[in-house]
Write a structure and sequence with these properties.
One of its GO terms (biological process) is galactose metabolic process. With 388 residues, the protein is of the alpha+beta class. The chain is built from eleven helices and 13 strands.
Length: 388
């Protein structure tokens, strides 16, 4: 409620209090509980939408301009619906909603001018999918105010992925957008990235809490080794296909990886993908059986695979995870997101959260010189229209 009240006040100051009714929306960030770098390799992932995210306010105008303003970033950008829309570096964050506007128009949607204001409590560039949250939110807002037609949220996720792939230039998979659009309160989503079949799994932690640990080392996916890793997976799959049919890398077996990949780098990349896909399926079974400790152990195994075989962790993430393991009450921890900075997550005894936070923050500061942000996260619904 505090975020909505702030958004209302700031919207009136930015755009004035007069005009058509203002509508308010929320789009969550997402955390992937296990199954990293699987979404573009055709396997299973296990994300959940977060109570942290991005709020949006929108009001229709009388002209053909869409004004984009964020309380978290500059600049303010105005899009003329009658002119070509291009990705321009000077527009920074606003290229994401600009891409949504362009692709909606290209898809045949009729858009009216409007004023838009964003306000988020989701850290940018930390692996919690701020980009997916912004893309899904913008598309959902514009579709809602410009049409009475029901919005298919699976198609919404696909649309947002297309914008990020083609307009932003990040070759991401579908997981982030799907979780942001389709999240369900207190549940994680077992998602088959090949077929988009999904199942909601209750995420009941009993005496434990999900803790997010922000390394405060930002990463920019388009400037990282993300696309390099994806290319390595494609190379590994091409080699394996010489010997056995496989529609994607997750259809290979660990024996295929060891037998057919002689290049050490490709072997390690593929070993992570295949073993991580197995961990996801095992993790869901353990959760369904109420085995939180077993699930937490798989989280730790996932981090080691991402660190050693996929090499997407780094000094800060490793230091954070190591600090978490040394703190009392932690039963499992791992990096989350694409890596190269961003966040890690941990399962921690709820009655030891204060001690855990203090120890992790102090140790991380000592080992890296950076200040961590540690907070407990809830599991939320996907993108939605809020009551004003």
């Amino acid at each position: 409620m505090k975020m909505i009240n702030t958004l209302k006040i700031e919207f009136a100051q930015a755009y004035g209090a007069e005009g058509q009714p203002v509508q308010y929306f929320f789009s969550p960030g997402r955390v992937n509980l296990i199954g990293e770098h699987i979404d573009y390799n055709g396997g299973y992932v296990f994300p959940a939408a977060l109570t942290l995210g991005i709020y949006g306010a929108i009001r229709l105008r009388q002209d053909n301009l869409i004004v984009l303003k964020s309380l978290n970033a500059m600049p303010v950008v105005t899009v003329d619906l009658n002119k070509p829309i291009e990705n321009q570096s000077a527009d920074g964050w606003a290229n994401y909603p600009k891409g949504v506007i362009k692709y909606l128009l290209d898809s045949g949607y009729s858009l009216k001018g409007c004023d838009i204001l964003f306000l988020g409590n989701l850290p940018d560039g930390t692996g919690l999918s701020s980009s997916a949250a912004l893309l899904v939110l913008t598309a959902f807002m514009l579709r809602t105010v410009n049409s009475d037609t029901a919005i298919d949220k699976v198609e919404l996720a696909k649309f947002a992925q297309k914008v990020e792939n083609q307009f932003i230039g990040v070759n991401c998979g579908i997981m982030d957008q799907f979780a942001v659009a389709m999240g369900q309160k207190d549940c994680a989503i077992l998602l088959d990235c090949e077929t988009l079949q999904y199942k909601y799994i209750p995420f009941a932690l009993k005496e434990y809490s999900l803790v997010i640990m922000n390394t405060n080392k930002k990463r920019e996916l388009s400037e990282s080794k993300y696309n390099e890793r994806r290319n390595e997976c494609e190379q590994a799959l091409a080699v394996i296909r010489r010997y056995t049919p496989a529609a994607n890398l997750c259809q290979a077996t660990l024996a295929n990886v060891e037998d057919y990949l002689t290049d050490d780098i490709l072997r390690r990349r593929a070993r992570h993908i295949v073993s991580e896909n197995i961990r996801v399926q095992t993790a869901v079974k353990l959760l369904e059986q109420g085995d939180i400790n077993g699930f937490a152990q798989l989280m730790t195994a996932s981090h080691m695979s991402l660190k050693d075989d996929y090499e997407v962790s780094g000094q800060e993430l490793d230091a954070m995870v190591d600090s978490a393991h040394r703190a009392s009450g932690c039963i499992g921890a791992r990096m989350t997101g694409a890596g190269f900075g961003g966040c890690a997550i941990a399962l921690v005894q709820t009655d030891k959260l204060e001690e855990f936070t203090s120890v992790v923050a102090a140790e991380y500061k000592t080992s890296t010189g950076r200040t961590a942000a540690v907070y407990v996260a809830g599991i939320a619904n996907g993108v939605s229209l809020l009551k004003g």
